[in-house]
Amino acid sequence: MAAQGWLTPRRRSATARSVLAGEAAAEAARKTSQQLEQEREEEAAATRAEPAEPDFPVVGDTRAAAFFDLDNTVMQGAAIFHFGRGLYKRKFFQRRELARFAWAQVWFRLAGVEDPEHMQEARDSALSIVKGHRVSELMSIGEEIYDEYMADRIWPGTRGLAQAHLDAGQKVWLVTAAPVETATIIARRLGLTGALGTVAESVDGVYTGKLVGELLHGPAKAEAVRALAAAEGLDLARCAAYSDSHNDIPMLSLVGHPYAINPDTKLRKHARDREWRLRDYRTGRKAAKVGIPAAAGVGALAGGTAAALALHRRRR
What we know:
By secondary structure, the protein is of the alpha/beta class. It is 56% helix and 13% strand.
């Protein structure tokens, strides 16, 4: 029994020091609990007051609109070349004209700069092709060409961005150096509001082979967006613009929400320096490494030219 008593713990009465320790622990626990609760409330309030990123586009903001470049932003490759392929298929011009036109396009897309000589050559080639044809004829053919060469080249990611603006109740415009007729067809097929494009002169519905002004390229795009915004009563600070090319920096700089889509090297750097948003929907190591939005366009250009020449040889 003595051993059992030795193993049984004996009760001790609380001393003043143990009472003090217990009360101090309880008080510390209470204060810590209150402090943690206060911190949680402050964090919740901060989250409510300052969201990480505001919703965009803003639903119902009808003074905002979106402007999308076309080539390699909305569609893989150059619209004007796809259109040219369709016209060649319909015997609008010969092999030599195709080669001259294709070379001008390849140079422009690879160089990434507005070289006056090659821009002039590209412009003259396109105008010589349509001169004397009726506008209605080219529009009808353009619908067919869209189905043949363009419909399956639309970037789904960019299409989704445009749809977000439409769903928010905003207008969405294409802005491109391609002929306005071609751009309008694409805009209509995609359910967009409309298009700003290069305007070719016509008299009594027949192309004259001249332009109204110049190609809608670079600074001209910014001027077109500014003019349309004034006519539509838009607030450019609330608008968005999307492009793949550094040539469109003037247009992107006009709006409050610029986006670099599949950006070339210069635009990517410019966008990062200014903390613009970037999206890249290209896949494969080549596009990521080279960083040239024209990569897909040049591929289509070279492939299309080769295919056209092969077709010509077979016909001969």
